[in-house]
Description:
This is Pilus assembly protein PilV. There is one protein chain. The chain is an alpha+beta fold. The protein has one domain (about 15-170). It is about 50% helix and about 15% strand. The chain is built from four helices and three strands; from the N terminus they run H-H-H-H-E-E-E. The chain has helices at about 10, 15-65, 70-75, 95-115, and strands at about 125-130, 135-145, 160-170. Strand 1 (about 125-130) and strand 2 (about 135-145) form a beta hairpin. The N and C termini lie far apart (about 105 Å).
Amino acid sequence: MNHRVYSPRGRQTGASLIEVLVxxxxxxxxxxxxxxxxxxxxxxxxSAYENTQAVAQSYAILDILRANRVEAVAGxxxxxxxxxxxxxxxxxxxxxxxAAQADVNAWVAGLKRNIGSAGDTSTCGSIxxxxxxxxxxxxxxxxxxxxxxxxxxxxxxxxxxxxxxxxVAI
Length: 170
């Protein structure tokens, strides 16, 4: 009697070319996914950096408002609306108001330097201080910038502009 034992080893001695191609395809798709995640991470990291800079710039002007509280309560720092460029300093105003206007201009320049760019019209800031009943002022600082790098999907709905507001009593 002749008994032959068939071992699967004898018939299969390696991976077929199709198996290798499928493995390479799966690896390629995985690497593309990793690259897409890295790109999204960089985009969102830039957005987070700009948000941090906006908060830091808000606190910087608040420190200036606290240092010159008399002019802040008088409304000398008020911009009236979003200011995207430096305004002319009116020489007819008092020295305190001129200093306040110079501080606001320097703050707007700092916004451009740290968040936007020199020529953009989307990086703006506003300051509104109103006297309160306690002898101080309630101040609202708003910073607006283009956050198009931070949005994952562009919906075209104008959602690229980002605004943060800081409200404080000084």
